[in-house]
Each structure stands twice: as C-alpha cells, then as structure tokens.
Amino acid sequence: MLKDTGEVLELAVNGCSHYYSNITPHPHLIHTKCHNITDLPPETTSRMSEETLSVRRFHTLWHGSKIHGLCLRGLEQEEKTAEPIVTPYRQ
C-alpha cells in the first residue's frame, strides 16, 4: 500500500524486495556477494536537462540507477573461494 501511494521506494534485488522511505531518486550500489545495498547521493548521477526532455515531450516521473558489483569483502571472498562471478550476462 505504501508503495502504491509513492510513500516508499521498492528496490527488487535477487528476487527480494527492499523498501526505502527515501523516495528521492538516487543511485544504489548492489553488492552481488553480500547482498548489501548502498545509497549514493542524488548528485552522483548526471541528469538530462529539463529542456532536453521537454523538446522530446517527455515528462520524467521517476528515475534512478542500480550499479551491481562487488565490495572489498566480496572481492576478498571471491579470491578465497575462486568461484566465478555470476552476472545476468554470464551464468
């Protein structure tokens, strides 16, 4: 219900939903080994100018970005186990 009214943001990662009260568009670092999610400040992403969007007659309702990767702990675990990194593109 809170998601439907826009009061929380749902972020689906690895089949699990995570909910955030910070609904301001901002990027997320998705840690693929430890499954942590790190918020980044909104200004770390470049935004298209309103002028560019209006020329295309496009009104932005929401934007965001997910960056998938390994944190230092995940990289160390990767080296110890010698398991291959699994991505949606290489499984």
> Would you count the extended β strands for me?
5
Helix content range: 10-25%
Q: What is the mean predicted local confidence, pLDDT?
A: 75
SSE pattern: EEEEHEH
The percentage of residues in β strands lies in: 25-35%
Description:
The chain has helices spanning 50-55, 72-81, and strands spanning 9-13, 16-20, 27-31, 37-39, 65-69. With 91 residues, it is an alpha+beta fold. The strands form two sheets. It has a three-stranded mixed sheet, with no helix packed on it. Strand 1 (9-13) and strand 2 (16-20) form a beta hairpin. It starts with 8 loop residues before the first strand and ends in a 10-residue tail after the last helix.
Topology:
Layout: E1 9-13, E2 16-20, E3 27-31, E4 37-39, H1 50-55, E5 65-69, H2 72-81
Parallel strand pairs: 3-5
Antiparallel strand pairs: 1-2, 3-4
Brief rundown of the structure:
This protein has helices at 50-55, 72-81; strands at 9-13, 16-20, 27-31, 37-39, 65-69. With 91 residues, the chain is of the alpha+beta class.
Task: Describe this protein with a few key phrases.
single chain, 91 residues, alpha+beta, three-stranded mixed sheet, 2 helices
